[in-house]
Amino acid sequence: MPSHTGKTPGSRRGETAKAGARISTSYGELQGGGGETHQTVAEGAERLTTSQGAPVADDQNTLRQGDRGPALMEDFHFREKVFHFDHERIPERVVHARGYGAHGYFELTDSLADVTRADVFQRVGERTPVFVRFSTVAGSKGSFDLARDVRGFAVKLYTREGNWDLVGNNIPVFFIQDAIKFPDLIHSVKPEPDREFPQAQSAHDNFWDFISLTPESLHMIMWVMSDRAIPRSFRFMEGFGVHTFRLLDAQDRSTFVKFHWKPKLGLQSVAWNEAVKINGADPDFHRRDLWDAIGSGDFPEWELGVQLFDDAFAESFAFDVLDPTKIIPEEEIPVRVVGRLVLDRRVDNFFAETEQVAFCTQNVPPGIDFSDDPLLQGRNFSYLDTQLKRLGGPNFTHLPINAPKCPFAHFQQDGHMAMRNPVGRANYEPNSWGEQGGPREDPERGFHSFAAEERGPKTRRRPESFADHYSQARQFFVSQTPIERKHIGDALTFELSKVERPDIRSRVVSHLLHVDRTLARTVADGLGLDMPEPAKAARPVVDDLPPSDALSIVKRGPQRFEGRKLGILLTEGADAGLFNALVAAVEAEKAVYEVIAPKIGGVVLSDGAKVPADQKIDGGPSVLYDAVAIVASPAGATLLAGDSAAKDFATDAFAHCKFIAYSAEVMVLFEKAGLADDIDAGCIALGGPKDAAAFLKACAPLRFWDREPKVDLDAKA
Ligand code: HDE
To answer: What DSSP designation does 355 have?
Structure first.
């Protein structure tokens, strides 16, 4: 029987063994006077203490005057324990509150020594430790993972010349052009202030009101309404530095750069209806995916790519390279791959690492510098400022997750929670204490800013070169495949259908007319709205920008099922040959699987082998899997046909355009589920074990999109 890889077996087994060993060697169990459980320490084992180190004799009862009398103030153990508990929380991030992190490394594969002195880009093959935190933007810390939202992609590289925080997103542009608008943007998308809902959703009046009055957001809106905003998991999405940065060489000569992270497994998203259901079935879908993948040794990987360009290109480019609502198409400046990012270690403690990590865009090592992008300039203030609030004092760099891993020395001292102060007598410079005087400047290797010449009047004016808000929005839209365009139309219609005020809906459509008339028509029809006049455009729309394949998820999709998850629904007596062949095919594709069965205890297959289940049918709906197989005995299939969770399993897989493999017996379920007449090329009958491998190969594109027009009212309209 092939090993059962669905649920990160290595790590799960390891964890259980560790916990079990500790309990059996360390504790004996006793009953207290009131029947409570005391677990007392065994010889040589770890002993419970207060935070002052005093051993604790009883952790079950407060100190009282008499058995049934009042509690005594003197009980320092109780007071310390509850005091600490009362202060366990720190403020959640004002944006990107919900996130998940992991450790890994960045390995340089192509030296950038020709354009930068940044140490991290010098030596091919060298590895730099990293910590990455992925996040959603709008939801609070306890919100669900599959909100329609931008994803944060923040990378802290602990380089030998200081930490470099590349705090990016999974979308290469942003909503606004000036940091002063960020509080307004975020206020508009967060829950409305009087009612504190909706949570983690942009589908409400305030957001679309702001957007409809902020035409510079239209390019970003196209991305956010595309399937990029509902990624299958962090492992299947791109990351972008968004802004133009500078690389500086040893002579401080500058090259402009844009940073890209490209997932090794290709891009993949879920369907919107699926996202809504995943949020109910497993609100932790994305964090669980990352945790499981790393635990099972299937380390997520991205390539780091750079787009390098000079002043001459910046001058000649049709848009301003400082405008964060614009991309530079890969067709104009190819992405040069220079390294890879591998996440190979889970956090030991979520709070200490993922919650307390403090990313600051201002953290750049020598050789990397900022451009004058007004959003980036504003961010450089905001991130340091927000960390003070969140982490409670200026010494957050003392936390292990934030401390550099290279030597560092300075004269900053004291403050809340100072864990290391400079040693010695000198805490200032210049000083005349000679060798004991502490660290000194290094004009040669130290950080140099690019000596940009700046001039002009002090103004609060948006440059003319930032004024074209629609042309690239259009370019993005026309670069999509038909199914992706449909999804953008569906998303806009859905979101605006949740907006109560018709004038806001209408104003959004008035902008869409500049992006694509058919899109505007589809959305207006979907909303039952009269077509408005086009919004006033500050610049004429350039409607012939060439489509770019790099902008489409489907065109950048995976080549195989690798890294994905098959859900195998089994019943008692299901064909063992088929099951074993499916498992072998999954393993051959380097994918994983889970078994779903009527009982969590599992099923006995036709050959008498017992297979434990990972999920009971109502706990393992098909939305949790990239593709599904249903293998049933005749009696099992009849049972499934009478079970609404099993019917949902099949109809959802079908509606979400998944590839479905099935044994012949399962037709009775399809009949009861109303699918029997709709069986299409995405539904693959398993006549015998040899069909399993072909099924897994057929799953390579992940979805059978041809089905969607047949199952969606919006497509038929
Ligand atoms: Fe952020 N952003 N942001 N942002 N951002 C924060 O910093 C801010 C922007 C991004 O996993 C905050 O530590 C301003 C663009 C990520 O810990 C805060 C502006 C991009 C994360 C902040 C922007 C981002 C943040 C909140 C407009 C993509 C999560 C908590 C000028 C390039 C980092 C914190 C993590 C977090 C401010 C716009 C990405 C308040 C003022 C553009 C991935 O400082």
So the answer is: I
Query: How many domains does the chain divide into?
Result: 2
Index of the ligand 1 atom closest to the CA of residue 324: 42
pLDDT tens track for 382-429: 999 999 999 999 999 999 999 999 999 999 999 999 999 988 999 999
pLDDT in tens, 173-222: 999 999 999 999 999 999 999 999 999 999 999 999 999 999 999 999 99
682 Cβ neighbours under 8 A, 6+ residues apart: 657, 658, 659, 660, 704, 706, 707
Residue 101 lies in a domain: yes
Residue 711 lies in a domain: yes
CA of 193 to the centre of ligand 1 (A): 21
**Model confidence at 227: pLDDT above 90:** yes
Evaluate if residue 1 carries a pLDDT over 70. no
| 11 C-beta neighbours (distance < 10 Å), count | 16
Residue at 315 is within a domain: yes
- pLDDT computed for residue 150 by the predictor: 98
- Kindly report the protein residue whose alpha carbon is nearest to atom 11 of ligand 1: 133
The pLDDT value recorded for residue 34 is 86
Final residue belonging to a domain, choices 398, 425, 441: 398
Instruction: Find, among 474, 546, 467, the residue nearest to 513 by Cα.
Output: 474
What is the per-residue pLDDT for 23?
Answer: 42
Are the beta carbons of 227 and 484 closer than 8 angstroms? yes
pLDDT in tens, 647-687: 999 999 999 999 999 999 999 999 999 999 999 999 999 99
d(CA 367, CA 113): 10
Q: Name the strand (E) or helix (H) holding 491.
A: helix 482-497
With contact defined as beta carbons under 8 Å apart, do 161 and 118 qualify? yes
- Residue 53: Cβ within 10 Å count: 7
Cα first-last separation, the chain: 49
Catalytically annotated residue among 96, 103, 286, 656:
96
Mean pLDDT of the chain: 95
Residue 263 lies in a domain: yes
Among 244, 379, 399, name the best residue to mutate to test ligand 1's pocket (greatest count of ligand atoms within 8 A of Cβ): 379
Q: Average the pLDDT over 255-264 and give the result.
A: 98
Of 283, 280, 275, 282, the closest CA to residue 614 belongs to 282
Q: What is the CATH number of the domain that holds 691?
A: 3.40.50.880
The closest residue, in CA terms, to atom 27 on ligand 1 is 179
**56 and 50 Cβ atoms separated by less than 8 Å:** yes
| Confidence at 33, pLDDT banded by 50, 70, 90 | confident
Q: How confident is the model at residue 6 (pLDDT cuts 50, 70, 90)?
A: very low
What is the pLDDT averaged over residues 22-47? 76
Asked if residues 173 and 242 have their Cβ atoms less than 8 Å apart, the reply is yes
- Testing ligand 1's pocket by substitution, the residue of 100, 130, 151, 167 carrying the most ligand atoms inside 8 A of its CB is 167
Q: Is 93 in the pocket of ligand 1 (CB under 6 A)?
A: yes
Q: Of 357, 380, 398, which residue sits at a domain end?
A: 398
Task: Provide the sign of the torsion angle of the four alpha carbons 330, 275, 694, 619, taken in this order.
Answer: positive
Ligand 1 contact, 179 CB (< 6 A): yes
pLDDT of residue 11 exceeding 70, the answer is: no
Report the distance separating Cα 350 and Cα 106, nearest Å.
22
Helix (H) or strand (E) holding 565: strand 565-570
CATH for 377: 2.40.180.10
User: Is-catalytic flag, 96?
Assistant: yes
What's the domain range around 336?
A: 64-173+237-398
Q: In 352-481, which ranges are continuous DSSP H helix? A: 374-391, 471-478
Predicted local distance difference test score (pLDDT) of residue 716:
62
